[in-house]
Every structure is written in C-alpha cells, then in structure tokens.
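Most newcomers find our protein records easier to grasp once they have seen one. Each record describes a single protein and holds just a pair of labelled lines. A learned vocabulary of local backbone shapes supplies the integers on the structure line. Nothing more is needed to start thinking about how sequence determines fold. The record below serves as our worked example for the rest of this section.
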Amino acid sequence: MTAANDTKQVTLSVPSMHCQHCVKTISRELKGLSEVVSVTGNLERKEVVVEYAGDALAKVKATLVEIGYPPAS
C-alpha cells in the first residue's frame, strides 16, 4: 500500500473527452494501473486529475494515448 505522502497529483487536459462514457473509460483504464491511486474526471473542463505513486506519469500518459484519449501537451 502506498502512503499518501508518497503520491503525486497531476491535472491533464484531455480535449477528446466528450461525454460521461469517455470519463468512465478513462477512469477505468487508469485505475487499472497499479501505480494509480485515484482518478477524477471533469467533463466540463475536459480534464483528468490523477493521483499516482512513483514515476508513473509517463505510463499514465501512454495509457491515455493507447485508449484514444491523448492528453494535450
């Protein structure tokens, strides 16, 4: 289990997120990564807030690309 102080948080812009189904898909896939602690999607802002452990940011971004929701740079 990861201690709260060992985690990082990032807000990613996901312009291709258009509906609640998109939010659910992104959340499900990212939560499937062992390093991801939590995922919160904001459809109105087209953003995803991800709390993760270690150096998983590249893996989070790669997963978003793989599932068809590439984050904006």
